[in-house]
Design goal:
The complex is a heterodimer of chains A (187) and B (431). Helices cover 78% and strands 0% of the residues of chain A. Chain A has 187 residues and is mostly helical. The longest helix of chain A is centred in the middle third of the chain and has 38 residues, at 74-111. The relative contact order of chain B is 0.09. Classes of the chains: A mainly alpha (187), B alpha+beta (431).
Chain lengths: 187, 431
Amino acid sequence: MNSESANLLFLECIKKCKAGDRAAQKKLYLNNYLFGISVCLRYCKTKEEAEEIFNNGFLKVFKNIEKYNPSQSFKNWFKRILINASIDFYRSQKKHYYNQDINTAYSLSSTDQNAEGDLGEKDLMRAVMELPISFRTNFCLFAIDGYSHDEISKQLEISVGTSKSNVSRARNLLRKKLELISIRLNT
Amino acid sequence: MKDFNNIPDKEFDDLFKKLAENAMTESDESAWDKMESLLNDSDNDKGKFALKKPLIYGGIILLFLSLVFMVYYRIQESNHLLENKNENEKGIESVNRVEVINNEIEGSIEDKLNTKGNTKSNIKTVLEPLALNDLIIPKSRYQVDSDLPFISAKNILINEVNNLSLIKKLGSTGKADYSKGIEEFIGEIELIADKKGALELNELTSKGFNYYLFSLSPNTVTTPVRKEIKLEIENFSKWNVRLGFSPDFSAVPHNSFFKIGHNWSAMVEYRLNERWAVQSGIIKSLKFYVADPERYLWPDKWGAKPDQLNRIDARCNMLDIPLNVRYDFSTGRNKWFVQSGLTSYLMLNEKYDYVYASNYTNQTWQSWEGKTGFYVAAEANVSFGVERKIGKRMTIQAEPFFKAPLANVGFGNVKLITTGLFISSKIELGK
């Protein structure tokens, strides 16, 4: 299937989704499931939470699909919705997460005992996932999803300085953690 | 092996960006089932909203029509008052003329009556024109000239005697046959005096004086009578500020009161007329309540609700934003009123402590703290009370209130009942 016919099929699917066609909605949902879940996982603690955010995000997609402009990338539009849903979730869980962050921060040194094999993609992403949630959210928004510090400060209701500091501290923690894993792998 | 400590920040970030873009999780075949159920719920909610829609729009239209009616009523009333005021101003002119005349003859009146201050005070206490019927003068104390037949009880004869007017009230009905020097005014005439003045006139009578001496100019007494003229119209301030405090008793239905909270209020009141007012503002509210697990929504993502969960203790700091309509069913110094409206909540901080059975060890979720946002028209409120004027521009008010739930609120989606007693003080800002 060439890209043109794929695009036509996608547009047809969107059209049916706008009309509330459940089969088309399922197709759109499953086609974007893996991508969407991986975005949500960056901003929460568990797969269950990621699924909840993803489903809530997709509900917004279906409700607002009339607003989607087919000349734009669906994934970018969809990703923006998911990140906003993730941030809403993060805000609602902030206090609770804060308590967990302390525990996570203390247990950083012990979790690297589990790292095995070469320092591969999984180790790197696991290191990100083990960051305290506030640092991780800030780091992912800035480094991975391309938000500016100004945007982050508004989204997370923090100052620009705090956003910069969080990203910097996240990088330092990641560097230390990866260094520890490297040393252990070399010995 | 990369030296992560020495690569630049940008390169370091890009490394993770690339990894994240390629990262894929495992697919989950059952995921769509959850999504479909969410979509079905959402469709059902749409249906519920569609049912509620006519009610909501009907309510809005009714509210709008009520407001239009109140504004129309207010304008009509203002026009009426303006007309009255214009007429009263004419009356005031007459009063002023009378006062001038009396000032000129003050001394002679006192000399003639051989009494101190009475006539003077009669005139000076004149505030507004009154219909004759408002004067309380015992008929038996009048000296009636035997050669004068009865005339209408509402008529008065005035005899000009040395710049003074002699007024006699004569009997009931009948026609007058005027004696020389006596001028009759047919029909109801306006007498410039107030009730206090009338009483003082009576005192004169009791001292043996048979005549009431007035200085009434003919122009004044020929003014047609206006029976229910008020020189001073009832005043009210359109814009008012009210500050208040109330203890807060909140509870989830079928649960007992837990702990007393409090409410601090700052309200603005706009008075549409003497009886109707609308008000809104902010009430900073601290509520405590307890909920049993059946009436508290346990988050799905936390897994199954533990059977050992006994209760949830809640402490909610919130802004209560009411929109009320008030009706005063009495006016004057003490006003009794009834008030009703809708209350919206903006959560500032919610804290829920989960209380488990003492032998339960797996207490993963012990508390939750955060805020869940804004709840529009979450409660209907009704109150009644009494307001008392304690100064020129200040009142104090006692107002028991009751708030009934219209929607679920808070992290636990509970229905909340609130009651209390507001003690507030109103400051009138101006007209």
